Amino acid sequence: MLKNSNFDNEFKLYYQPQYRTSDNKLVGMEALLRWIHPEEGFISPADFIPIAEETGIIFSLGEWVINQAMCQAKAWNQKYNMDLQVGINISPLQIENSDFVNRIRQKIHDEDIKPEWIDIEITEGVAMSSQVSMEEIFSGLANIGISISIDDFGTGYSSLSYIKRFDIDRLKIAKELIDNIAEDKNTLLIVKAIIMMARGMGLKTIAEGVEDSNQLEILKVLECDEIQGYIFGRPVPPEIFELEHIEKTIHSSN
Ligand code: C2E
Ligand code: CA
User: Fold this and answer.
1) Residue 7: what pLDDT?
2) According to the model, what pLDDT value does residue 177 have?
3) What is the Cα gyration radius of the chain?
4) Residue burial 181-206, b: 16+ Cβ < 10 Å; e: rest
5) Whose Cα sits closest to atom 12 in ligand 1?
6) Cα separations (Å) of 116 from 27, 73, 137?
7) Which of 32, 175, 236 gets mutated to test ligand 1 (max ligand atoms within 8 A of its CB)?
8) Under 8 Å between Cβ of 246 and 82
9) Residue whose CB lies within 8 A of the most ligand 1 atoms, among 89, 123, 234, 236, for a mutation test
10) Does 67 sit in the ligand 1 pocket, CB within 6 Å?
11) pLDDT digit string, tens, across residues 95-147
């Protein structure tokens, strides 16, 4: 089905807001891919991304995602005179393709996009495997001026040394940790340690999957920089994101 799919007709990027904790200001959004198959209906990215990776379709699909997300960020930032940052999930395979950094650089140049509008999300495991080439890719991306976030941080085998070695901007604290932060003291201590460590290294932190006000209050006390989760908004189509998040931000600051 993936091989026969028409990306423009069947796929759509949804956007989930990211808010700054200190002043509740909208700072960006994560682009999350949705497949609405003409016969099968909604298919979860958790199901089709692994298949896209196995079949190599991830290269063209990932490219489509990057183009869409960059154009959307540009359209909103120009229309509303903002600097929202769009988080784009990147598959390890896409990065390992040696030309990745050059292609991103070219796109940013061709489309007249500010590099600070773009954040690349890479999972912790990826950042740790094949470290030598990754170091080059990370510094290549950092040289362009785009931001790099480590996705699902704190779930895998965290090696603190690579965080220091690589040009990383932000840690995305995994939902699995946030889920237990209000009930489990050990989890709370882990999240606290992650935030303190990140701050010490000059990295930002964003908590993922924040659903209720208990979790939010704790994260405020711990001075986690940003929040993403149902408490502020689910992933929604761009039309709705614009209405519910961007326009609201504009009106509340006027
Ligand atoms: P992820 O990068 O960890 O994305 C976060 C997932 O958590 C999303 O699921 C999002 O809808 C969900 N989420 C966010 N806040 C909450 C919350 O408060 N409560 C709950 N229960 N869930 C929350 P989604 O959209 O189903 O995406 C699943 C995974 O698929 C993503 O996990 C990412 O790894 C992958 N994915 C999505 N889009 C892309 C893409 O364009 N490219 C690649 N390579 N992977 C993608
Ligand atoms: Ca992500």
Assistant:
1) 97
2) 97
3) 18
4) beeeeebbebbbebbeebeeeebbbb
5) 209
6) 11, 11, 17
7) 32
8) yes
9) 89
10) no
11) 877 689 999 999 999 999 999 999 999 987 665 565 557 788 888 999 999 99
Is residue 167 left, alpha or beta, with left meaning phi > 0 and alpha meaning psi from -120 to 50?
A: beta
Each residue's pLDDT tens digit, 70-80: 999 999 999 99
Cβ–ligand 1 distance for 13 under 6 Å, the answer no
Alpha-helical segments (H) within 24-159: 45-55, 57-80, 92-96, 100-110, 124-128, 131-144
pLDDT in tens, 47-56: 999 999 999 9
Q: What percent of the chain has pLDDT over 70?
A: 94
pLDDT tier, 156 (very low <50, low <70, confident <90, very high otherwise):
confident
In this predicted structure, the answer to whether residue 170 has a pLDDT above a threshold of 90 is yes
User: Atom 19, ligand 1: which residue's CA is nearest?
Assistant: 209
Q: Give the position of tokens 């992933």.
A: 235
User: How remote is the CA of residue 32 from the centroid of ligand 1, in Å?
Assistant: 6
Binding site membership of 45 for ligand 1 (Cβ less than 6 Å):
yes
Q: Which long-range contacts (CB under 8 A, 24 or more apart) does 182-190 make?
A: 182/212, 182/214, 182/215, 182/218, 188/218, 190/154
Angle 52-157-16 from CA coordinates, rounded to 5°: 50
Q: What is the pLDDT of residue 155?
A: 83
pTM (two decimals):
0.96
List residues bridging with 13 in a β-sheet.
33
